[in-house]
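Note to self: the last two entries modelled the partners one at a time, which told us nothing about the interface. This time every component goes in together.
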Amino acid sequence: MVEAPIGVFDSGVGGLSVLEEIHRLLPNESLLYVADCGHVPYGEKSPEFIRERCRVMAQFFQQQGAKAFVLACNTATVAGVADLRRDYPDWPIVGMEPAVKPAAAATRNGVVGVLATTGTLKSAKFAALLDRFATDVQVVTQPCPGLVELIEAGDLHSPAVRQLLQGYLDPLLAAGCDTIILGCTHYPFLKPLLRQMLGDDISLIDTGAAVARQLQRLLAERQLLAAGPARPAQFWTSASPEHMRNILPLLWNKSGIVRSFGL
Ligand code: DGL
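The predicted structure of the combined assembly is written out below.
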């Protein structure tokens, strides 16, 4: 059980930004990753559809004997984590949400921007997060349709991605945000481009490292931390394994086996 793998899932390759943080903090853990690329983007899909996909992933990781389940996707978390915790009360499940609390603590001028998917920003869970942690700051939210598709294609720098991103950053810059939350796990892959576009004065905050720490806490509480050595990471995709093999080196520079996910 201690040496059992950890299951990590996202609508696509975005969750690899979280996988990286998990691997950095917990190098002895064996990792399984499912990219639901056949259904990406989740951002514009209904909560019912996403909940069903979360159920499919949970069943798959249970069959693989995973000792913990990480929803490396903000959009899937707001739609599905409550049902999963109800259905699997004894299984350590880690979800993620935009880093409103740390951003509210970090902002110097009290203006915070949030880049996330439409599904995340429209959710009751996000509204509750703002009510709880953002009462003393101004929060400017910006959905980013189209961005995930470009990142899925492995495009992190082209003029097309820069132009789309500029349109999403403009309202945040006009409002004077000094802190921007990357509220979708795909967006940390755009950090080098964002730095070029924004300079160094605007803080960028994402939650990958915090998710890894939460996973570590849950495993430690249950005495489930692996002694290692870890087995190579295994990847599944519900779209083309060939495409995933091609872009994996860009997003995960370690070895790993990629298979087709047919569920
Ligand atoms: N990576 C996902 C998130 O964190 C969702 C992207 C999408 O499929 O729209 O929200």
